[in-house]
Design a protein that fits this description.
With about 100 residues, the chain is mainly alpha-helical. Strand 2 and strand 3 form a beta hairpin. The longest helix is centred in the last third of the chain and has 49 residues. The protein is elongated.
């Protein structure tokens, strides 16, 4: 993205921080690289402009919150998949038991 911005783009518009990067360190690194090239990122959620003075603390805080949100979503997805697998396994067991009962008659 940084390479594509040079000379062509002066501002990146992003809905929220969790879409921009997956972890805090990468977020801050990319924002700093873009700042060096005088390219700002405007995050609609939170109305944060990375080129504006005094937004560093707000950027780090929201980047941490976004990272936690992604981690939490990932954990929920993992648990949902485990529950679905368990339900499918139970369904197959019940089906096999019913087949055994029907065959034994």
């Amino acid at each position: 993205m940084i390479r594509h911005c040079e000379g062509e783009i002066d501002r990146v518009l992003c809905i929220n921080m969790s879409i921009f990067e997956r972890n805090t360190a990468e977020t801050l690194e990319v924002i700093n690289q873009l700042r060096e090239k005088n390219i700002g990122v405007l995050f609609e959620k939170g109305n944060i402009d990375t080129l504006a003075q005094g937004n560093d603390f707000k950027i780090s805080t929201l980047a941490n919150l976004a990272q936690d949100e992604i981690r939490s979503d990932s954990e929920v997805n993992h648990l949902t998949i485990q529950i679905l697998i368990h339900q499918i396994a139970l369904s197959f067991r019940q089906k096999n038991i019913m087949q055994l009962v029907c065959k034994s008659r």
